[in-house]
Design goal:
The chain has a domain of 163 residues: 4-Layer Sandwich (Phosphatase 2c, domain 1), CATH 3.60.40. By secondary structure, it is an alpha+beta fold. The protein contains six helices and 13 strands. 26% of the residues lie in helices and 31% in strands. Strands 2, 3, 5, 6, 7, 10 and 11 form a seven-stranded antiparallel beta sheet that branches. The protein has a six-stranded antiparallel beta sheet with strand order 4-1-13-12-8-9. Helix 1 runs antiparallel to helix 2 and helix 4 runs antiparallel to helix 5. A hairpin with a 2-residue loop joins strand 6 and strand 7.
Length: 247
């Protein structure tokens, strides 16, 4: 009998932007302008989810993020180690550069990405850019992604410039995704999000909301981001791992 993970996903334009350039997918469910919220149980040997944030200030960010999710969805079943993830990211990156010159594309369109894939006793988190992943255990929440942004002096506000992205430049540059492995059996929940959440809500409040909103943590987090000003698109995926659901 397959274990059932519980998952929630939501994506929203926010209160300032005129369109949503984020995309996300959880297993077979995919966000779209017409369907931006989802919850369900995942009975599958391979759990996967990803969030892509089309880069602000670049044209066709919504196309860039959608292409990234498309590529992940097509290749995720082939992932069995770190090398496969790096190949997946490289393929998504090249797909963006090819799309720049195709009808409907735009030079330097780009996207961040953060994702998770887990099979039984093995799991991986991967990211490029500043969309984030957190792992929750019984007593802490830990950011396991890396923000690919310039290092700042103490006291400076976080930069939104990216040192790595999928696409985002006129010609390809060397790209190295951040990949970290984890044991799904030791994790209570996985949170993936675009910076529209983390720019508005600090980590302590994010953790508190996930823990005290078991019925729909994604909507609770979205509400907090909007209450704080909703300055950017907001996309959130929360997965409660099967080994902790009944506890």
């Amino acid at each position: 009998m397959l274990a059932k993970h519980r998952a929630w996903a939501t994506t929203h334009a926010g209160l300032v932007r005129d369109r949503n350039e984020d995309s996300c997918q959880v297993a077979s469910w995919r966000s779209s302008p017409a369907e931006a919220n989802w919850r369900g149980s995942l009975a599958t040997e391979r759990l996967w989810a990803a969030v892509a944030d089309g880069m602000g200030g670049h044209r066709r960010g919504e196309l860039a993020s959608s292409l990234v999710i498309d590529c992940i969805a097509e290749m995720i079943d082939e992932v069995s180690d770190d090398t496969d993830i790096h190949q997946l990211i490289a393929q998504a990156n090249m797909r963006l550069f090819h799309a720049m010159a195709a009808p409907g594309g735009s030079p330097a369109m780009g996207s961040t990405v953060v994702g998770v894939v887990a099979t039984g006793q093995r799991g991986w988190i991967f990211n490029v850019g500043d969309s984030r992943a957190y792992l929750l255990t019984g007593d802490e929440m830990q950011q396991v992604s890396v923000d690919h942004t310039p290092k700042l002096a103490a006291g400076d506000r976080r930069s939104h410039a990216l040192t790595q992205s999928l696409g985002g430049t006129l010609t390809p540059i060397p790209l190295k995704a951040h990949v970290v492995s984890f044991d799904p059996r030791a994790v209570e929940a996985v949170l993936l999000c675009s910076d529209g959440l983390t720019d508005m809500v600090d980590d302590d409040e994010i953790e508190a909301l996930v823990r005290r909103s078991p019925d729909d943590p994604a909507q609770a987090l979205l509400g907090a981001a909007l209450d704080a000003g909703g300055a950017d698109n907001v996309t959130i995926v929360v997965v409660h791992m099967a080994n902790h659901i009944s506890r």
